[in-house]
Write a structure and sequence with these properties.
It is a single chain. This protein has 94 residues and is an alpha+beta fold. Helices cover 36% and strands 24% of the residues. The protein contains two helices and six strands. It has a four-stranded antiparallel sheet with strand order 1-2-3-4. It has a two-stranded antiparallel ribbon with strand order 5-6. The chain starts with a helix and ends in a 6-residue tail after the last helix.
């Protein structure tokens, strides 16, 4: 019985990061892969946020031009650092 319970607890713990990414995916209208492994999140209201290849939120300057992985250029709108940070950390708090 204890073995089954421990397997259940480990299974739930392994799924916690998946719930955090699901929160970001449900809020973002589009996720665009950038050069250097970064990601640009375009939210439903048109504002954007950028994540580094290490999973950290990066500040966007007003009107910053970013390069997509396929070489296209995108001019960013907004700087949703707080929104992306809270979505990435959703489910990871105490």
């Amino acid at each position: 019985m204890i073995r089954k319970l421990s397997i259940l607890v480990l299974s739930i713990a392994a799924m916690a990061p998946a719930f955090a990414m699901d929160a970001v995916q449900s809020e973002a209208k589009q996720v665009i892969a950038l050069q250097n492994g970064e990601k640009l999140y375009v939210f439903k209201d048109g504002l954007m946020a950028k994540e580094s290849k290490f999973g950290n939120v990066i500040h966007l300057s007003k009107g910053e031009v970013v390069q997509t992985a396929d070489g296209k250029s995108i001019t960013t709108v907004g700087n949703e650092v707080a929104r992306l940070f809270s979505l990435l950390n959703k489910g990871h708090g105490n």
